[in-house]
Amino acid sequence: MTLLSQIKTIAVIGAGQMGSGIAQVAAQAGFQVVLCDNRTEGLTKAIQGIEKSLSKLFEKGKIEEHPPAILSKIKKASQLNEITNADFVIEAVNENENLKKEIFSQLDKILPANTIFATNTSSLPITRIAATTQRNSKFIGMHFMNPVPIMNLVEIIRGHATSEETYLITKQLAEKMQKVTVCSQDYPGFIINRILMPMINEAFYTLMEGIATAEDIDAGMKLGTNQPMGPLTLADFIGLDTCYAIMKVLHDGLGDSKYRPCPLLKKYVDAGYFGKKTGQGVYKY
After folding, report:
1. Computed over its alpha carbons, how large is the radius of gyration of the chain?
2. pLDDT of residue 1
3. Three-state SS for 177?
4. Nearest-angstrom CA–CA distance, 109 and 222
């Protein structure tokens, strides 16, 4: 009997791109899922997106179970108090620390003491968010990559008080979702963004200083370092607002000037050029 056998129902908070993807892979792994979002239209859109994604995977032979059977494992909820029996919670709302704290503070009063809480964050401090609950040892970070159904990695982040059992259950859960895990301690940026975001930030400095065009920067890094896409294209796909927010977290948390967000990156964000999602970033879409 594995530690994971005690996890039957997973609640996913937030039905955006990340939350819907997490709900999908959890249902594919055989768990009962409650997908919660206070935006009714967001929930409807998420379920439609999951249905479309599952159909594509089924047609390509990537999954054997029929999409309607997987979809039937996902229930919708529009309020946190509708979640009463989750064994594991994965919060996947925006990278807003206060919002995450508020959600976990509410869930802490609603759910049993043995329910594990995980926050899907790419840079926010796990220990500080966990401190808003009475279950520090059962609190952990799970950083899923986007798009969740396609990307193989989950970065697990241990808070200061995260227990070994919580870590092992989370690792087994991610593996059940067909993900490969890496483990990081709770420092700004963790592993992925501690390395990736300064590279993207430096690409913006290279562009700002007129060293090369955006196209040449991306082609150079793509072909010269064998990356699937250049750093500026990747920034557009991640969202320039997200990149800027993470650089601020790194700069504030580590206090080193090398993490200072590039002024050109800030200018794009100030102009509302967030990348692919708004149709305009470094490139036009």
Report:
1. 19
2. 53
3. coil
4. 48
Q: How far apart are CA 51 and CA 31, in angstroms?
A: 17
The residue annotated as part of the active site, out of 20, 143, 184, 201, is 143
73, pLDDT greater than 80: yes
Positive or negative torsion for Cα 146, 148, 154, 159? positive
High-pLDDT (> 90) share of the chain, %: 96
Model pLDDT for residues 200-238, shown as the tens digit of each residue: 999 999 999 999 999 999 999 999 999 999 999 999 999
Confidence of residue 2 (pLDDT cuts 50, 70, 90): confident
251 included as an active-site residue: no
- For the entire predicted model, the pTM comes to 0.92
137 among known catalytic residues: no
What is the enclosing helix (H) or strand (E) of 116?
strand 116-119
Strand 88-91 to 74-77 pairing: unpaired
**Token pair belonging to 181:** 């895990």
Known catalytic membership, residue 143? yes
Q: Pick the catalytic residue: 123, 136, 155, 184? A: 155
Q: What is the DSSP string of 86-98?
A: -SEEEE---S-HH
- Is residue 36 within 8 Å of residue 79, measured between CB atoms? yes
Q: Which of 122, 123, 136, 184 is catalytic?
A: 122
Catalytic residue selected from 20, 53, 184, 193: 193
3-state secondary structure of 101: helix
> What CA–CA distance (Å, rounded) separates 101 from 264?
31
96 a catalytic residue: no
